[in-house]
Amino acid sequence: MSEWLESAITRAQSINDWLAPKRANALELLSTTKWPTRKTEAWRYTPLRVVERTKAKSIDDAAIRLLPVAIENFSAIELAFVNGKLDESQLTNALPKGLSISLGQNLSDSEKAQALSAFSTTKPDRHLFGLVNDVLAQDVVIITVEAGAEISEPVRISSLLSQGAESHTRVQVSLGEGSRLSVIEDIQAQGESLSTAFVEYNIAAKAHLEHYRFALQTGTNVSIGGSHFSLKDHAKMHSTIVSFGSDLSRLDTDIIHAGEFADAKLNAMHLLDGKELFDLHATVEHAMPNGTTEENVRGIVADRARSVFNGRIHIHRDAQKTLAELNNRNLLMSNTAEINTKPELEIYADDVRCAHGATVAEIDKQALYYLQTRGVSRSKAQVMLNFGFINELIDLMPNAALAEWVRPIIRERFAQMEVK
Amino acid sequence: MSNTETLLSIKELHASVEEKQIIKGLNLEIKPGEVHAIMGPNGAGKSTMGYVLSGRDGYNVESGSVILDGEDLLEMETEDRARAGLFLAFQYPVEIPGVSNLEFLKASVDAQREARGEDAITSADFLKEAKAACKQVNLPVSFLKRGVNEGFSGGEKKRNELMQMLLLKPKLCILDETDSGLDIDALQVVAEGVNSQRSADRSFIVVTHYQRLLDYIKPDFVHVLSEGKIVKSGDASLAHELEAQGYAWLQTAPAEDELEG
Predict the structure, then answer these.
(1) Could you state, in order of their start, the residue ranges of all structural domains in chain B?
(2) What was the ipTM of the complex prediction?
(3) Using CA atoms, how far apart are residues B222 and B207, in angstroms rounded to an integer?
(4) Which fold does the domain B8-97+171-260 belong to in CATH?
(5) Distance from CA of B58 to the nearest CA of A (A)
(6) Which chain A residues touch B111 with a CB distance below 8 Å?
(7) What is the pLDDT of residues B104-119, one digit of tens each?
(8) Distance (Å, rounded) from C-alpha A405 to C-alpha A212?
């Protein structure tokens, strides 16, 4: 076991609050978990040395004020965590009808009991840093949408970290039957910082979740997080994940079809440069029949950067009539960049349609040269030739303001990448 | 802009591809408005010359100089050479599926206008110009919507190159075997297009293996390129001599007329 994990466990032992039974369980699991090495399949291409060596530490300074990133034509109900602590001053007092947002400790006893029973049920126990988050996240926030409520203003969950900070944030979202909600998860982190950020979503029958996760932090940040979804009958989710890389950026997503006729769409794109690393482990569990999943993961990897994608679709014996598609496309910009992609299908039902594919392409230097001979700059030519497959996913983002905010950020990053 | 008498001056150019020397002491001077034909056998370095002048990756200049309109061409990136007025019409134009011809043409024109400090042209105005250019080179307007050169026939690709030239209005055009793979009708269209662009401030290097194209585009000078340098120069009549003789004489007396270049 690493010193870092030992210290985390020690720190966790002093926490005693409403989540005590769940935390004790996670602590128990953690104490028997082996620290991952290169031989641990889930961490095979993602070394944890940067976690072992981190100097990030918990910073409790009320004078530090950090704000979520401003986006044109966009407003949200702001749930801002500053160095792991919820900044309640940023949360509006006037929430729309049908939506409640509360710190777990402020809930009534009956609400607490409900929140406690849902805690860590969507997020599987196999995620090591999910367990770390279970025991160390202090300000656990519970978001509830009443049955039938359609909340038009999105909720934005921002994990904001100052230089050198360590942060563990946890949010639990439940959508009542037939309700609608849009949630944006964002990390804005300065250097030498470390965060775990996990959100669990329980999506009741006929409810509809629109979801975004932005992880555009770069440099020496270490971010490990997860978004975990459970879908009941006829529930729908549409998720868009946009990531750059950093010393270590790891995301685990789990989509569980826990009801029939659920529909999940996941579009993920990542652009990595320098020596960045980004690792996406996406698991879909089709536990019930008649579910559909469409998963598009697209990456551009330049310089000495490394991307890791593990896409697992597990179709259980009873999940007949499942339709599942997993597609991973990559563009390799340099011969020192690395792409590790592993689609995994496990199918136990016999009447399903399931497809997967992974491709790695290189930039067409001849086409690049052709455009340059016409006066088009190399970076513009690169965007014209190869941005299309990323742009397609941006076009599919349901929130136009977010799409128009992130599009030039991604395009600019790509334009700066060099062909090597 | 400099007002030098010479538009292009190539002096003692040596260049290699993958460490193999292809251009071995090339000298060439072109004045504004002149049309120079470069002829020669396969492997003489004709296409390489165009790639070296345009700054293609992997084509390394070892020594010598190239001045275009007073500027050191070899110091520039490929796109800056184009913005300085150099245009290379490819022997094998590249297909780019997924990028429409119109988008490609507009990006090219925009980039060059921007480099000259001119205002951007509106999409509507540009479309009008592009349609006129299409008509001039005898391509259906629908080709503007198709992917760049995607599925175009050989002749259509060459006409598309010509259309780019019409829109970009370069100072120096290098036509790299623009006649290859063309039937006589297509050849006439291309030649008419080129001839319509001849002017006192635009020069051409017409690279060709055969004399046929030069019946339609009358050169002021004809040079014979062999083993990476010009071994013989003359007026338009030289092309007819070559047509009659072929290039076999080069092998028997390779250095005979070297000084004439």
Answers:
(1) 8-97+171-260
(2) 0.93
(3) 10
(4) Rossmann fold (3.40.50)
(5) 11
(6) 374-377, 380
(7) 999 999 999 999 999 9
(8) 13
